[in-house]
Structure formats: structure tokens, C-alpha cells
Automatic annotation (TrEMBL):
Biased composition (Low complexity): 669-678
Keyword Magnesium set for record: no
Spans annotated as Disordered: 297-334, 370-395, 637-700
GO cellular component, one term: centriole
Coiled coil: 31-100, 185-219, 252-290, 531-593
Keyword Cytoplasm: yes
Protein name in the entry: Uncharacterized protein
Similarity-based family: Belongs to the CEP135/TSGA10 family.
InterPro entries: Centriole_BasalBody_StrucProt
Length: 700
């Protein structure tokens, strides 16, 4: 009942699947099992396709996340490369600055050696000058002692004594000042001592500048070493970042500590710079105050010791119109004395002119020095205004350049002292000449002594002029060396300014690098956390991907099995189709056979009816002849004979029409034997039922 009820449903399913041929009943169970398996396989395939779609979507999401992480990693690598390039640029600049500092140090050392050599040469020249001055002094003393040009006047024979009132009237009550004495050795020794002190001051300033330069070089070297060490740490930490991410935090903390230490050092240096600036401001004020005081003192001294350029000449003494008789005898001597007095006056005028020229040149030189000092002061003031916020090294250089002011002041003071001494000499010489002019008549010995003194003074003046010329030459040399030193100081100041700018740029870049490093470290920590999350997600995605791969492999295997099963089903379906087509062709043949047999059945029915009527007539005839024999014969022989005849005739016809079919005669034989065994005579419906049962048989 179940197979018959499922058969139409299976037939409809096969029709929906595209199989229009009828399904045999015997194959219903197998087809139903195959359909159920195919339905289960299709459901499983749908589930696997859905799972595969979901896994592909998850994989796309994971790939998008991984691509995003790769983009962020690429950005971080780009930033890291840019920071590395900046560090390399800073390193190259630091190397260049260090190389320039070494060159400058070499130049400074060479300058120091040159200054030492020049100091030694100046000391040797000073010793030689002192020796020459001693020799000159001894030679002058020997010449004075050898010549002794003081002639004794011959005694005059007079008849009567001179009138003392006349002589007393010619005297002038002039207080003779002491004769000025110029100690050239002392002056030269003082000058040499002053020059040595200035050289010592310059050497101390140079050593201070060298110490500051060494300190700055050490700072630059420490900064370079710190930058190199940071570079090395960055280079070391870069390959280890992928292997040991946990060590980055320790290195970052160490780098942050180092950056904090550098920041503290920078603050300490800034405090030192601030203190140096304050000290520089105080020293500048003190130098300005000292310069103002020196300027006021110079103006006061110049006003106090100023000598007029045009001094009226002293009128010469004229002989009296009426000389007394006792004086006429002395007229040749007086004429000689007058000629000597005129010679002395001319010598005095010449000496005065020379001294005035020297005074004018000294005043011009003093004005030039004052102008240079004022120009230097204005230049220094401008530089001080411009470089008020400069570094400590620049402060030391400015202090060194400002320390040149005492040298100018000492030079001006020495010039003023020399001018004062020359004025004193001129004043004393004028007073002595005036006293000699007034007292030449009575004190010839004193006049001769004054002449010797004048000659000695002339020699001293000549030596003083020579010394002054030497001092002028030395001053010119010092001026040239000072200008050269000022030029070198300007060059060094420019170099140090450039270096300070570079250092400030480096400091700014280091600060920017520190800020960018802190920002990048924070971003790196964020990226690290994100990367850890991405790593965990990637690990889970990898596990899910592996699981999906295993599931895909299993599904692929199941799909392959299903494919093989489907192929087998297709093959079996083809076989069943072939068998079904064969069965259908056989069924058609059987139907044609059934139709033929039905026609034969109709003809046989007619024959059987005719034979039956004939048998009835024969029975009637036999009954009429011998009733007992006919009935027994008819009941025992005739029906079986007629039935056997029909069976033999049917088998003969079926064998004649279907010689190749072996199953139908067996069925017919079975039905005929059964009919013969069951009853001796079958009515008319027996053959119909047998034919109907035969027509309904189908071969699977």
C-alpha cells in the first residue's frame, strides 16, 4: 500500500525533475531512497554554500582590517624613515660643526702660538731697548764728564768797584724751578711692564675664550654622542620591534629619561646663559661708567694743561742807550753774551716750535684715538644692543672686545702724560731760559751751566723724540695688530654667531624631534595596542580561517562524494532510463500481443461457442442413442479435450508470433495447467480473466 501510494508522488517528482517516462513500481523504493539522499545532499550543499558565503564575507572583513593595519604600519614606517633622515641630517650638521670647531680650535692654537712668539720677541726687544738706553745713558754721562764745556771767565781788572745798585736793578726775582729730569729707562720699563700686563690680560682672556670654546665643544660632543646613541638605539630597536614588542616600552622609557635629562641640561644651560647675560649687562654698565669717568678726566686734564698754540715771544733785551763808563769796558763780553743769548733764543724758539709741533701731533693723535674710541664705543653699543640676548660664548667675546677699551684709555693716558711732561719740560725750559736771559750779565757761569743744561735737554729732547717716534711706530704696529685682532674678532664673532644659530637650530630641531618623538611614541603605543588587538583578531581570524579551510576541505570532500554519488546516480539513472525504455518497448510489444490475443480470444470464443453448441447437439444425440455412455464420456473426455485443444492452439499461436519471448508461454502454461488441475471444465469467464491477468503483467 505504501509503495502504491508513493508511486504517483515519485512519478510527479521525476516529472518535475525532467523525467517524463513512467516509473516502474519495482524501482519506486530505490528511486525514493535516491531522491531522499539527493534532497539531503542538496540541503547540505545549500548549508555549505551559506557557510562558505559567510566565511568569505568574514575573510573579506579580515582582509580589509589587515589592509588597514598595513596602511597604518606603512604610515608609521614612513614617519620612522623621515625621523631617521632628520637624525642623519642633524648628525651630518653636527659633524660639520664639529669639524669647523676643530678648524677654529687649530686656528686659535696657531694664533696663541703666534702671540706667544710675538710676546717673546717684544720682551727681547724691550730688554734690548733697556740695554741700549743704559748704554746711551752711560755714554752721555761719559761725554759730559769728558767735555766739561764750562769755561772759566777771566778776571776783569777794574779801577773801581761795580755799582751793586745797577746790578741789582737788572736782576729779576724769579724763582727757579728744579730742572726736569726724564728717566727714559724707567719710562721704557713702565711701558714694557704695561705691555706685558696687557699681553697677560689678553692671554687670560684668550684662555677663558678657549675654556668656553672647549666647554661648548664638549657640550656639542655630548649632544652628538647622545644623538648617535639615540640613532644606534633606534637602529637596534627597529629589527627587534617585530620580534620583541614588549622590549619597546623599556627602551622608550629609557629614551624618555634621556630626553628629560637633556631637557634638564638645556634648562641649566639656559640658566647659565641668563646669568651670563646679567653679568654682561653689569659689566657693560661698569665699563660705560668707567669710560665716562675716563672721558671726563681726560677733558678736565686737557682743559687744565692746554697750551696756547701761539704764545707771544719774549722781547729781546736791548742794550741801554746810555751805558755807564764802567760798563763800556765790558762791551765785547756783553756782545758775546748777547750773541749767545740770541743763539739760545733762536734755539729756544726752534725747540718751542718743535715742541708745539709735537704737541699738535700729539693732540691730533689724541683726537684720533678719541674718535676711534668713540667709534669703537658706538660700534660696541650697537653690538651690545643687537646681541643683548646672545649666548655665553658671544658674551665672552664681547667682553674681550670691550676689554680693549682700557688699552685705548691707557694709550690716551700715556699720551696725555707725555704731553704733560713735554709741557712741563717746555714750561721749565722757558722759565730757565727767561731766568738765563735776565741774569746772563752777572752769572756767566750759571749761563754756561744753563747752556750745558740746554744742550743736555736738547739731547734728552732728541732722545725723547726718538723714543716718541719709536712709541708712535709701536703704536701704529699695535693699532694695526689691534685692527687685525678686531677683524679676527669680527670673523670669530660671525663664525660663533653662525655656530650659535646652528646650535639654536639644532636645539630647536632636537626639541621638535623630542616633541615628535613623544607624539610618535604615544601614537606608537596606540598603534601597538591597536596592533595587538589586530594581532588577536588576526589570530582568531587565522583560527577561523583554518577552521573554515578544514570545513571547506571537508565540504569539498563531501561535494566530491556527492559529485561521485550524483555521477553514480546519473549513471544509474541512465541505466534505469535504458531499462525503462526497454521495459516500455516490451510493454508496447506486450500490448500489441494482448490486442492480438484478445482478437484470437474473440475468435476462439466463437469457436468455443460453436463447439459447445456442437457438443450440446452431440450430447443430445448421444442421450437420444445411449444416455449413460454419452454423459460419462462427455463429462470425462470432451471438456478436457476441448480445453487442451485450446491451450495447445494458444501456445502454438504465441510461439508462432513471438519466437524470441520465453516468458509468455510459461505464464500460459502455468495458467493452463492450473486451469486443468482445478476443474475439468471452465466456463467462458476463465479465458477472459486469464487474458486480463496476462495483459497486466509488466517486466521491470
Amino acid at each position: 500500500m505504501s509503495i502504491s501510494s508513493e508511486h504517483p508522488q515519485l512519478q510527479r517528482q521525476l516529472y518535475l525533475l525532467g523525467y517524463s517516462q513512467p516509473l516502474p513500481v519495482e524501482a519506486s523504493e530505490l528511486v525514493s531512497v535516491l531522491l531522499r539522499d539527493m534532497q539531503t545532499a542538496l540541503d547540505r550543499v545549500k548549508e555549505l554554500e551559506k557557510e562558505h558565503t559567510r566565511l568569505e564575507r568574514d575573510e573579506r572583513v579580515g582582509r580589509a582590517a589587515v589592509e588597514k593595519s598595513r596602511g597604518e604600519l606603512h604610515v608609521l614606517r614612513t614617519e620612522n624613515n623621515s625621523l631617521r633622515s632628520e637624525i642623519l641630517t642633524l648628525t651630518r650638521e653636527a659633524d660639520k660643526i664639529r669639524h669647523e670647531a676643530r678648524g677654529e680650535t687649530y686656528k686659535w692654537n696657531k694664533t696663541i702660538d703666534d702671540l706667544r712668539m710675538s710676546n717673546l720677541c717684544l720682551r727681547a726687544e724691550g730688554a734690548e731697548s733697556a740695554r741700549k738706553l743704559d748704554e746711551c745713558q752711560k755714554r752721555l754721562e761719559e761725554l759730559i764728564s769728558q767735555k766739561d764745556p764750562i769755561p772759566r771767565l777771566p778776571r776783569l781788572s777794574v779801577s773801581r768797584p761795580l755799582d751793586e745798585s745797577l746790578l741789582r736793578s737788572t736782576r729779576v726775582n724769579v724763582k727757579m724751578p728744579p730742572a726736569p729730569v726724564i728717566d727714559l729707562v724707567d719710562l721704557s720699563s713702565r711701558r714694557i711692564t704695561a705691555l706685558e700686563e696687557e699681553i697677560d690680560i689678553l692671554e687670560s682672556k684668550l684662555s677663558q675664550a678657549k675654556a668656553e670654546m672647549k666647554a661648548s665643544e664638549m657640550d656639542v660632543k655630548d649632544r652628538d654622542l647622545e644623538i648617535i646613541r639615540l640613532n644606534a638605539q633606534i637602529e637596534k630597536s627597529k629589527p627587534q620591534r617585530s620580534a620583541a614588542i614588549g622590549d619597546d616600552s623599556t627602551e622608550k622609557e629609557r629614551l624618555e629619561d634621556q630626553m628629560e635629562y637633556m631637557h634638564e641640561q638645556n634648562e641649566a644651560l639656559e640658566r647659565q646663559v641668563k646669568e651670563q647675560k646679567e653679568q654682561f649687562a653689569r659689566e657693560k654698565d661698569e665699563l660705560h661708567r668707567r669710560w665716562v669717568a675716563a672721558e671726563n678726566e681726560r677733558v678736565r686734564l686737557s682743559e687744565q694743561h692746554q697750551i696756547p698754540s701761539a704764545k707771544p715771544a719774549t722781547p729781546p733785551l736791548s742794550a741801554p742807550s746810555s751805558a755807564p763808563p764802567h760798563m763800556q769796558a765790558q762791551s765785547p763780553e756783553l756782545e758775546r753774551l748777547r750773541s749767545e743769548c740770541a743763539n739760545i733764543k733762536s734755539l729756544y724758539a726752534q725747540t718751542r716750535d718743535q715742541l708745539q709741533e709735537l704737541l699738535k701731533s700729539g693732540n691730533a693723535e689724541n683726537r684720533r684715538l678719541q674718535q676711534e674710541a668713540q667709534n669703537t664705543e658706538s660700534t660696541l653699543r650697537q653690538e651690545l644692543d643687537q646681541l643683548r640676548n646672545s649666548s655665553s660664548a658671544e658674551t665672552a667675546r664681547l667682553r674681550a672686545s670691550l676689554d680693549k677699551m682700557p688699552e685705548y684709555q691707557r694709550l690716551a693716558e700715556s699720551r696725555e702724560k707725555q704731553i704733560q711732561q713735554l709741557e712741563q719740560r717746555l714750561h721749565s725750559l722757558s722759565e730757565s731760559l727767561e731766568s738765563t736771559r735776565q741774569a746772563h750779565a752777572k752769572e756767566s757761569d750759571r749761563l754756561q751751566q744753563k747752556l750745558r743744561d740746554a744742550q743736555q735737554r736738547q739731547g734728552q729732547i732728541d732722545t725723547t723724540l726718538e723714543e716718541y717716534k719709536q712709541l708712535v711706530e709701536q703704536h701704529k704696529k699695535l693699532d694695526r695688530s689691534l685692527k687685525q685682532a678686531v677683524g679676527e674678532v669680527a670673523e670669530w664673532r660671525a663664525k660663533y654667531d653662525e655656530r650659535d644659530h646652528k646650535l639654536s637650530d639644532l636645539t630647536r630641531k632636537v626639541d621638535e624631534y623630542r616633541m615628535s618623538y613623544k607624539q610618535s611614541s604615544s601614537e606608537l603605543r596606540t598603534c601597538k595596542r591597536t596592533l595587538d588587538a589586530y594581532g588577536n583578531d588576526l589570530a582568531s581570524l587565522r583560527e577561523a580561517n583554518e577552521h573554515l579551510q578544514r570545513e571547506n576541505e571537508r565540504m569539498r570532500q563531501e561535494i566530491e562524494q556527492l559529485g561521485r554519488l550524483k555521477q553514480a546516480i546519473e549513471m544509474s539513472k541512465d541505466d534505469y532510463k535504458r531499462q525503462l525504455a526497454k521495459a516500455l518497448s516490451e510493454n508496447e510489444k506486450h500490448r500489441s500481443l494482448v490486442a492480438h490475443l484478445q482478437g484470437e480470444r474473440a475468435s476462439l470464443r466463437v469457436q468455443v461457442k460453436a463447439q459447445f453448441h456442437l457438443n450440446q447437439r452431440l450430447e443430445q444425440r448421444l442421450e437420444s442413442v445411449d444416455p449413460a455412455y454419452v454423459v460419462t464420456g462427455v463429462n470425462t473426455e470432451e471438456p478436457s479435450t476441448s480445453v487442451s485443444y485450446l491451450d495447445s492452439h494458444r501456445l502454438h499461436r504465441s510461439a508462432t508470433n513471438l519466437p524470441t519471448e520465453g516468458r509468455r508461454p510459461q505464464v500460459l502454461s502455468r495458467s493452463s495447467s492450473a486451469a486443468h488441475s482445478t476443474r475439468s471444465f471452465e466456463p467462458r469467464g476463465y479465458v477472459d480473466n486469464e487474458l486480463e491477468s496476462t495483459s497486466s503483467v509488466s517486466i521491470p
